[in-house]
Amino acid sequence: MVDAFGQRVFDVILLDLTLPDSEGLASLPPLIKLAPSLPIVVLTNHNDEELAIQAVRQGAQDYLVKRQVNGEILLRSLRYSIERKQALENLRAVNHDLEIYAEECNSELVKAREINQFKTEFVSMLSHDIRNPLNTILLAAGLLENNEDKLPQDKKLSHFQHIRSAVKSMSQLLDEVSFIGQADAGKIQYYLEVIDLEKFCFQLVNEAKLATDDKNINLIFTSCEEFCKVTLWDESLLRHIFGNLLNNAIKYSPAGSTIHFDLINQESCVVFQIQDSGIGISQEDLPHIFEPFQRAQNVGKISGTGLGLAIVKKCVEAHNGQISVWSQKGVGTSFCVTLPLIYE
Ligand code: ADP
User: Fold this and answer.
1) Domain range for 325
2) Ligand 1 atom index nearest CA of 305
3) 20 to 30 A from 111, CA-CA: which of 58, 101, 270, 285?
4) 76 lies in a domain?
């Protein structure tokens, strides 16, 4: 039987339920399994009506009683079964498509809800982060206005400095938010040019050193291998990535500690590793640090927006690279960025 299905195409199966090698409905289920889309008409003896009805319930399209069959009845039954099976198969296909469509709609609905939730959280975090510097400005401006004559010059200067730094932090926050918005809309500007990577990283390290304030941090840059000088990079993306990672390493490290920035050349990519011995990140916070506005619980009074790493991740992705992080609270943190080599 299996062989016959492999060799020929059938329109309908006429199944005799009273064959010498098969009793009752035993042959029906394997036949349906073998040819699920073929209509089946069963043939029974005149006293087997109950069996015939069971066969129809199990998937046969019709039944005929042997002694009552003539050519006309047989033909009508076969035609009817073919039509009925066809209609059933069409219905099944439509049902299947509908199920897939419903699943797609459902998953889109879940996604839309997630995005909505994310936007609500984003706006509430943003308003919270803007309210802080605004309060500072309001407070300092009020003090200056109400005590204009009484305030000594150095106090006045300090209030003006507070206003200035609050405005600066708001402006940085808005820049970062707008960058993330652009990245989400797939609108990051991408301009590749030949960059001498070693020289560029060395320059970034020197710039970062200027930002170490008086922490006396030892920032060590190493690049052991020979680098191809004609590879293409987007300078602005590289600045966002390594500027943020280096500044974080400095910001979250204690005075006098050492930070390593290593450049490792591989066959088709470059690995950048930034390792510090700072406050580290707990295992609980670690999975969330690339999400906007997420800051670890141990940051204490160290200031930040929680947007830097979200930007870093988007820039790494825009450069078709990958980023990973290892960290242990109280021990240190190591970020590893892998970017593919693009030749001129
Ligand atoms: P922030 O402006 O708060 O520094 P980021 O997005 O750059 O925001 O970093 C997210 C959080 O990840 C930080 O708030 C901090 O908790 C943690 N983090 C990032 N880099 C380091 C690091 N080098 N050492 C310890 N914690 C870090």
Assistant:
1) 193-340
2) 2
3) 285
4) no
CA distance 263 to 241: 14
SS3 label, residue 16? strand
**d(Cα 115, Cα 88) in Å, to the nearest integer?**
40
Q: From the centroid of its chain, how far is CA 99?
A: 25
CB–CB of 38/10 below 8 Å? yes
The answer on pLDDT for 17 being more than 70 is: yes
The predicted structure's pLDDT at residue 172: 87
Structurally, how many domains does the chain consist of?
3
Model pLDDT, residue 1: 56
- The last residue of one of the domains, among 134, 157, 184, is 184
Contacts of 21 (CB under 8 A, 6+ apart): none
**Through-space distance between the first and last CA atoms of the chain, rounded to whole angstroms:** 64
Q: Residue 334 C-alpha to ligand 1 middle, in angstroms?
A: 12
Q: Is residue 2's pLDDT more than 70?
A: no
Beta carbons of 249 and 333 less than 8 angstroms apart: yes
Our answer on whether the CB atom of 176 is closer than 6 Å to any ligand 1 atom is no
Question: Can you tell me the distance from the alpha carbon of 277 to that of 218, in angstroms, rounded to the nearest whole number?
Answer: 11
CB of 292 sitting under 6 A from ligand 1: no
Q: Coil, strand, or helix at residue 3?
A: helix
Q: Check if 238 has its Cβ closer than 6 Å to any atom of ligand 1.
A: no
Q: Which residues contact 11 (CB under 8 A, 6 or more apart)?
A: 38, 39, 78, 82
Strand, helix or coil for residue 109: helix
Give the mutation target among 250, 252, 294, 334 for probing the ligand 1 site: most ligand atoms within 8 A of CB. 252
- Residue listed under structure tokens 């591989």: 266
168 and 201 part of one domain: no
Within this chain, do residues 58 and 137 fall inside the same structural domain, yes or no?
no
Per-residue pLDDT reduced to its tens digit, 161-194:
999 999 998 998 898 898 988 888 888 888 999 9
112-116-121 Cα angle (round to 5)? 150
- Angle at CA of residue 79, ends 76 and 80, nearest 5°: 80
Residue located via tokens 């609050």: 166
